[in-house]
Amino acid sequence: MITYDDFKKVEISVGKILSIEEVPETDKLLKLMVDFSEESPRQIISGIKEFFPDIQTLVGRKCLFVTNLEPRTIKGLESNGMLFALSTDEGAFSLLEPLDSIPVGTKAN
Prior knowledge:
It is built from one helix and nine strands. It is mostly beta strands.
């Protein structure tokens, strides 16, 4: 269990995926460039490749991300956030996506 004060520290923001590439020599990783209405897009590395036979279908989608994590290097690439997604042991998968009317950069209260 974490305290409510710890949970309040988590910054959840709406981001729009601008581009996506496979990370070489991996089976699961994708490199996403994501717009959060900041000065420049953020690079986020995510292990969701197995759920998207055509990864380009992700381009243009708005999703929820944790945006205040310390940067982490994954397979030599810096990741500056974490994509929110759900999966089950049976293979069901879902991205957490806001309504289209919610602007990029909006933060959860």
